[in-house]
Amino acid sequence: MLSLEQLNSQFAINHELSFKQSDGDHIMIDIDNQYATARISPYGGQVLSYQPKGQTEDVLFLSDKAVYQQGKAIRGGIPICWPWFGDDASGYGRPAHGFARNIPWDVLATTHNSDGSTSVKLGLTSTEESLAIWPNQFELILDVTVGEQLTLALTTKNTDSKELTITQALHTYLKIGDIEQVSVVGLDEVNYLDKLSGYDEKVQSGAIRFDKETDRVYQNVPNTTVLIDEVLKRTITINSQASNSTVIWNPWQETCAAFSDLNADSYQHFLCIETANVFDDEVTITAGESHILTAIFDVENN
């Protein structure tokens, strides 16, 4: 990866985008434009912060115990789970949620757009190390646009001579005021698999509310999911493209306490709503073709 000086020389945008050394090993991309501030980590290709001007709180939750070290995933923001989601079932001891969130991405481009928004393009390609644990040639591109909305588009291009199959998720940690005073709407009457009861299939009835650990995969979902936060008095709307599955997760108190990179009460202040391609929604890409997974986040005060 390029040095801090090289990155600023090639990609900084005057009074809008700069590269800074963070605590730990990582370099961060900081954006401050007319619409919002944001922070993106090239390590993991991970958006860590997005705060529209006029919002008193960040849209994204980032643990204050997050670890910024090579080989460790950063707890919070929008981790990229790719090319598999969840625990690895291969028996080869590969990391949960794939390898994309645990390695540095290349900075490919930064752009000041005509509408005043700012875009960052990050990329990964297959290496000897990746081929050793996942034998597929690929090119992975993350396009992030910071404006009135936050937009992420994750493009998987199959550069191999054979087809490849992936599961993936934009594992978004949304910051909330109180887990017991939020609701998720838009998934009424949608079937879901409940991980906490052996992936039994159930049907959602009404809005989703939270009073215990929740880990669900909603299938055949609509394109729009809405989080209503009664404490922060705001609504976060998530619009997705090329995704037919949505993961809803909150670890609650006992499971949260088992994570060394979360505080004991962190579960009260985040909810994961993940734009995904998982289970029946896995994606097979033929040689030379691409798939683009998109999530757009829009915030309004209630």
Description:
Strands 5, 11, 12, 14, 15, 16, 19 and 20 form an eight-stranded antiparallel β-sheet that branches. Strands 6-7-8-9-22-18-17-13 form an eight-stranded antiparallel β-sheet, with no helix packed on it. It has three helices and 22 strands. It has helices at 4-11, 128-133, 252-257; strands at residues 17-21, 27-32, 36-41, 46-52, 80-81, 106-112, 118-125, 138-146, 150-158, 164-166, 168-170, 173-175, 182-185, 191-194, 200-203, 214-219, 224-229, 234-241, 245-250, 270-277, 283-285, 290-301. It is mostly beta strands and 302 residues long. The chain starts with a helix and ends with a strand. The longest helix has 8 residues, at 4-11.
Give the averaged pLDDT, no decimals: 96
Largest sheet, if any?
Answer: 8 strands, antiparallel
CATH fold call of the domain at 4-175 and 259-297: Beta-galactosidase, Chain A, domain 5
CATH class of the domain at 4-175 and 259-297 reads Mainly Beta
Written as H for each helix and E for each strand, in order along the chain, the element string is HEEEEEEEHEEEEEEEEEEEEHEEE
Any idea what the shape is?
globular
Low-pLDDT windows of residues: none
Radius of gyration: 19 Å
